[in-house]
């Protein structure tokens, strides 16, 4: 079972173990086209937590397309290190007509890519769609965004409302869920429990005298959520301790300790926004067989502007 969250105790190990994936397919040079799948495929090596669903979400394609490229592969039995075929960015070539108007609405507004940004997250945050952002950036490959890169986005959106109403959405995403700690239960494959329980999360203060200088065990809650570490590192004051609404296939997931889930840790394997890390009890609220699954698909989340756990800046 993948333990992905980067607690301070395990940070060195997590960084040393990170893998870099290099696309074997060159980006198309025609700025009036975007890759979607028929003529360009390449090999991809399965990483911890990968599912066909998560790969389809990241590459702007569908599970059916990936399955068609891998007829002998059983999606529920993927192994880390296994090599499969994936479309370069979806499937075939689709021409996109660039706007000819010079009005700001037609051109969009410029935006500088920040750590953790994806087209999907930007679309959610601006109340628009991935297709609308892609149409404004025909020469940009969504899976190769670089921090500091300038793109175009639709102007004038206030972002989405939280599902079910409530406070402003600060960070959202969808993909899969994994577990890495738990203060009251464990899985058969983890008979000794989770060493991460004794690690200091990203949102723990570095000041030993601060009231939030606590390990996960000392914090005493299974409601803590770990998100993309790059996003959290750049937005600790904004996101640490904030309420997280979690859904499994659109159905709300109840926090295991009562109350609400909250952002409190960073996750190395969640970089890119397609995954969040739970306590085992938290993930079992989405799938009772989380121990055997390891990775639970169909998870979506919204971090909203409500304080659940007080954060003391370092």
Description:
This protein is an alpha+beta fold. The chain folds into three domains: 47 residues, Roll (Membrane-bound Lytic Murein Transglycosylase D, Chain A), CATH 3.10.350; 47 residues, LysM domain (Membrane-bound Lytic Murein Transglycosylase D, Chain A, Roll); 139 residues, RlpA-like domain (Barwin-like endoglucanases). The chain is 20% helix and 24% strand. It has eleven helices and 13 strands. The strands form four sheets. Strands 7, 8, 9, 10, 11, 12 and 13 form a seven-stranded mixed β-sheet that branches. Helix 2 crosses helix 3 and helix 5 crosses helix 6. It starts with 10 loop residues before the first helix and ends in a 7-residue tail after the last strand. The relative contact order is 0.18. About 18% of the residues have low confidence. Pfam families: LysM (PF01476). InterPro entries: LysM, LysM_dom_sf. It comes from Volvox carteri f. nagariensis.
């Amino acid at each position: 079972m993948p333990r992905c969250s980067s607690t301070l105790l395990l940070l060195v190990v997590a960084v040393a173990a990170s893998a870099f994936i290099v696309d074997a397919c060159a980006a198309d040079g025609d700025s009036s086209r975007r890759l979607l799948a028929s003529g360009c495929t390449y090999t991809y090596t399965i990483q911890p937590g990968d599912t066909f669903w998560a790969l389809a979400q990241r590459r702007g394609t569908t599970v059916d397309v990936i399955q068609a490229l891998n007829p002998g592969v059983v999606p529920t039995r993927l192994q880390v290190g296994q090599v499969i075929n994936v479309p370069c960015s979806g499937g075939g070539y689709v021409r996109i007509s660039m706007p000819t108007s010079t009005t700001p609405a037609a051109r969009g507004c410029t935006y500088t890519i920040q750590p953790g940004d994806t087209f999907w997250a930007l679309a959610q945050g601006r109340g628009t769609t991935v297709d609308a952002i892609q149409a404004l950036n025909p020469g940009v490959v969504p899976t190769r965004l670089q921090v500091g890169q300038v793109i175009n986005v639709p102007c004038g959106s206030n972002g989405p409302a939280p599902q079910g109403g409530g406070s402003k959405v600060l960070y959202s995403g969808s993909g899969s869920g994994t577990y890495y700690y738990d203060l009251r239960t464990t899985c058969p494959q983890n008979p000794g429990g989770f060493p991460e329980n004794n690690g200091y999360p990203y949102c723990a203060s570095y000041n030993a005298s601060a009231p939030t200088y606590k390990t996960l065990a000392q914090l005493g809650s299974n409601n803590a959520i770990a998100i993309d570490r790059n996003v959290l590192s750049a937005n600790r004051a904004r996101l640490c301790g904030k309420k997280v609404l979690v859904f499994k296939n659109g159905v709300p997931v109840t926090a295991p300790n009562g109350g609400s889930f909250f952002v409190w840790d960073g996750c190395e394997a969640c970089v890119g926004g397609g995954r969040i890390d739970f306590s085992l009890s938290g993930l079992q609220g989405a799938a009772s067989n989380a121990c055997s699954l390891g990775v639970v698909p169909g998870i979506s989340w919204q971090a909203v502007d409500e304080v659940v756990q007080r954060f003391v800046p370092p």
